Amino acid sequence: MAVREIVVSRVVISKVATVTALGDGLDPLWQGLLDGESGIAPLTRFSCENYVSRYAACIDNLQASAELSLLDTILERVAVQMGALPEDCRLLVASTKGEIDRLTMACRQKGVIPPTALFELLLGKISRRCSLTDPGCNINAACASSTIAVARAAALIAAGEAESVLVYAADLVSEFVFSGFSALQALSNEPCRPFDQQRKGLTLGEAGVALLLMSEECADRHAEAPLACVAGWGVANDAHHVTAPARDGCGLILASNQALKKADISATQIAAINTHGTGTLYNDAMELTAFNAVFGESLPPLHGVKGSLGHCLGAAGGVEIAIGCRSLQQQMIPGTVGCLDAEDAGQGKLGVTSQKISGDYLLCSNSGFGGINAVVILQGSV
Amino acid sequence: MKGWINGIGWVTAAGCNSGRNTDQQPLCQGSLEIPKRKQVFEKPDMRFGRLDEFSRIGLAAIAFCLRDAGEESWSEKRPIGIIAASRYGCLQTDISYLQTMLPEHGKLASPNLFAYTLSNSFLGEAALRFGLTGTTLVLNQADESALSSLRYALEELAWNGQQAVIAGSCDLAPPAELSRKGEYPGGLFMLIGKEPSTDMASYGEIELRGDEIFFAGSKVNDFQALVGDVLAALIR
User: Fold this and answer.
1) Does A20 lie in the same domain as A64?
2) Are residues A77 and A27 in the same domain?
3) Is residue B82 in a domain?
4) What is the pLDDT of residue A2?
5) CA B98 to CA A179: how far, in whole Å?
6) Using CB atoms and an 8 Å cut-off, which of residues 69-108 of chain B contact chain A?
7) pLDDT, position A5
């Protein structure tokens, strides 16, 4: 059997649903971002007395009964927005810690480890709630998880292995993760300021997001109006360190070049970049180094949303790709909340105010622990 | 979609080893011994002793796999990915981390343990030691055949321009309340190249047809059967 190359189908994103600290749905999220709002606020979910920060971007009114996880509530709020999906839709999930709130509670109470500590039970819940026949799989690649899931979904559709794929991503603000980043001294003691010269670290956030990817033909059959096309993708490890990015940005450069090649476009055709932009010293510097290397004089406008939404871990990329779809439709990128005085390497390209853009392509990137980097290029005007 | 199995290595209840040293099935029941650095690397490795147990078995199994394929040493980074299936992931590390976090309301939370509370952390350890720049991720899914990582790897080879992919599975023994019959704790990985190795004898060709995996032209039903077939295929 000959090796099949990816040339079969164009891949479109036909539906998105988001639950973030800026509300339920892409409309309030988009408007909040344009207005420069931030969902970052003092945490009330658990005591921050022993941690280096007291801030996070939590979803409003997120509650669950004792036997459930907060992820159950997020799933319900996302599923309501998504509505009916093709039954034969494949399922790719991206969560780094799943129902970590339930595991923490079980350990706190010295009880038995709940079966929901396993991802396969979370997958079952998502599949059932969305009335899908595919049991799905979870992709665990740290903060690049959902970007990789979108890339994988696009690859499956482009190769003709699937007609539609639901990418669902969610992660919580939990004491587990909060205490860990605090212990690593990675949290900012004030709301994070991505790419600002005075940035001090990241602020955690939480989100649930679903993206329905389809072949163009499938979208036509289901009368879905495409929001954007997934034109290219790339994934690369920088092979440098487990928790720190390679300072030369080699992994992100590689992933970006793979994505440009897959999209069959030149760097000059990218109208804007939705960065990972965590607000940590090294991540943001690495990204600027990498993007300057890839784009040179044609570096387009950049922005990041973690000053508004916090770092939503495995869900970050999915939310940012949803925002990217709207950016291309509106030919606008929101400002980067907290970036009052951009790093030298981003001067003139980053700021707190929204920027108009002009062009058909937008690049989204995410990087994570384990040295992983992932890039998706979206195409508008489909 | 086709590839060539060019190496296989493991850390299981049968011990640490690789395919060119034995044809005995390594996926077996029993207790898993966590390897010490000297069992895996000849030279001192400052980080190995700091790794959590999940990462140690995963990294060690990948090391034995690459050694088996003659691909352990490198001078330039290589477009090789790692796809690891795991049912329990780093659950034991999560529990260990919680034991540092809970007693003093976070005051004693261990930053070193936290760094390994992502299932993919050991893939980063492997990537940096062996210069691997391909896609690295952990797959979690209900998969009785345990072949999901192989399918993913073969698709990666066909679609995403990698020279080779290391595919396999990695799990510690789970907490008793979650364990199932027929599970084999440990890590076992195969190096699947686009082409047969030029330096070592390849074990044979692996192919994905639809959802089914074939090795040397015969259909395989599950991961254990595939491992048995692969080990039996090498002319020693």
Assistant:
1) yes
2) yes
3) yes
4) 41
5) 10
6) 77, 81, 87-89, 91, 94-95, 97-99, 101-102, 104-107
7) 46
